[in-house]
Structure prediction request, 42 residues.
Amino acid sequence: MSSAGIAEFIELNLTLNKLFVLASPIVYALAFLAGEFDKLIL
Prediction:
């Protein structure tokens, strides 16, 4: 694997990590709201 390939791989990982960090609170919020919504229905 060339150094350019490694650099691209690291950059891709960092980008995915940022997306994951940004998405996590949204996913938790949706899961929380879904749980609350279930309570309202029941």
Summary: The helical segments are 3-41. The chain has one domain: 1-42. The longest helix spans residues 3-41. The CA atoms of residues 2 and 36 lie 50 Å apart.
